[in-house]
Model the fold of this input.
Amino acid sequence: MKLFIRFWRVFDFLLSFLAIMGMCIMTAMMLAVCWEVLSRYFLGRGTEWVIEFCEYALLYITFLGAAWLLKREGHVEMDLITIRLKQKMQTTIKGIVSILVAILCLLFTWFGSIVTLDHFRRGLHQPTAVGPPDFPIFAVIPIGFFLLFVQFLRKAYSMLVSKEWEKANKKVMS
Done:
């Protein structure tokens, strides 16, 4: 049990760290857009890199923060039907859905890794003005989906299997 608690502490720290990284990227994106506006207004010409940077930043923000948001139950849920069911049935359905989504996340991790490694091996670059390599841009996708996979398994386990584990997990999460 102590090993699980230690694992979840490290995992939760990683999720928080990546969410903070996403927030830093969002701040950098905001500053870059402000720079673009000021340089266009005062210097009469913009930059080539700001729009491209913001495109990649949005991808990173999404995948760095997704598992952290799931941990806090911040994702949108369609509960039009399930809200009318008894609590135990709602919990069971959420647990089953979490398992199914975890499987999908694992598939996306696998295929995202294959594509990312393929682009790395071939040395491909984006066909844009700045032309950055594809590998660092795509690498965040399998990483983010793997973290989502683990978090959905965690959610499914707490919904379907163990109330005692859930109590221990609450200690970790607080």
